[in-house]
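Bug #77: duplicate submission created two jobs. Keeping one. Sequence:
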Amino acid sequence: MLMTDSWLDRQPEAPAKMNAEEWKLRCQLADCFNLFYFMGWTEAIFNHITLRVPGPERHYLLNPFGLTYEEVTPDNLVKVDIDGNIVGYSAYPRNLAGYIIHGAIHAARADAHCIMHVHTDAGMAVACKASGLSHDNFYSAQLAGLVGYHDFEGVASEIDERPRMVASLADKPILIMCNHGLLVVGPDVPQTFRTLWTLQRACEVQLAADSIAGPNIHLSDATLKQTAVTHAKFEATGDIAALQFAAMVRRMRRETAGRPYANR
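Kept job's structure:
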């Protein structure tokens, strides 16, 4: 088994007074933040990734507001309750928009263990199109029927938007926030990352195809239905999400060796 040089590889023992499962999740989430920075999926100190921790309290972890994703570590992640209150000590505040958006979905969806929200150029560009994501390329075809849309209401800082956002997502894993960005929900960090990676690639290819003169090749409903079947079979062949996430973390650590935060 290849070592990923992940945070858990470096610090396998949980700190005192923290259970091993929460520490494992903190390490994986910190790897994910560092990976987003490496891939350029960041917006200064903004946007959010959240991850629910085990327990009946329904607490979840999110990035410390004021740090770049490269600076996130397992021990500086902020734990909050479902109402957005910080649990325990944190040297950093939590982002209000992170609570408004993510807290609403964590509260409404029992399966929403991990939520990722980004403002990538390709994602925001597609979110600004009236037609949204066109399911006519290799990646977007895999997402047909899995995407919800939420109308723009501002910077997502008002409590009363939460029920409308939850309704827009419904039971889907993907929400395109119109004129805003992308949001993905999943059962854990690797699967949510894989879904977002697929969505991001779909947006990038759509932008590239639309920049070339001439019409795109339309995919029929029958083709999209068959793609859903073959995609499900492919995903069931192994733990592809975990394999991809670990491989991407290994690549990041190799290519950023010596950086002060991602590899300290």
